[in-house]
């Protein structure tokens, strides 16, 4: 993903609300499966770090590798990720 594609995705994500919160439990299998389901439907999602702020980079890398998506950006305590949907009916974003 190049910088212009990343900027476009960041601007599209601006109006989105976080679909998942990473709290004191950290990253669990349930959270991973929830993120996988949501990114398949929506392609672009936000994840908010509540209490795991110090580990947000390592948790972000775990999410990206587990879900097999692309990290768009980390802004403050918000992670933005993108993955093109496998289902053509769910594809809404063209980068």
What does this molecule look like?
Strand 3 (70-75) and strand 4 form a beta hairpin. The chain has a single domain, classed as Translation Initiation Factor IF3 (2-Layer Sandwich). It has three helices and four strands, in the order H-E-H-E-H-E-E. It has a four-stranded mixed beta sheet, sandwiched between helices. Helices cover 39% and strands 21% of the residues. The chain starts with a helix and ends in a 13-residue tail after the last strand. It is α+β, with helices and mostly antiparallel strands.
Which descriptors apply to this entry?
4 strands; Translation Initiation Factor IF3; 4-stranded mixed beta sheet; alpha+beta; 21% strand; single chain; 95 residues
Write a concise synopsis of the structure shown.
By secondary structure, the chain is an alpha+beta fold. It has helices at residues 3-13, 29-42, 56-67; strands at residues 20-22, 44-49, 70-75, 78-82.
């Amino acid at each position: 993903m190049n910088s212009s594609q990343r900027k476009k995705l960041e601007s599209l994500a601006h109006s989105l609300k976080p679909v998942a919160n990473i709290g004191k439990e950290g990253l669990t299998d349930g959270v991973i499966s929830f993120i996988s389901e949501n990114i398949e439907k929506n392609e672009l999602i936000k994840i908010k770090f509540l209490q795991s702020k110090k580990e947000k980079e390592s948790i972000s890398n775990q999410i990206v590798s587990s879900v097999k998506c692309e990290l768009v950006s980390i802004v403050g305590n918000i992670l933005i990720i993108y993955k093109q949907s496998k289902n053509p009916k769910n594809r809404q974003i063209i980068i």
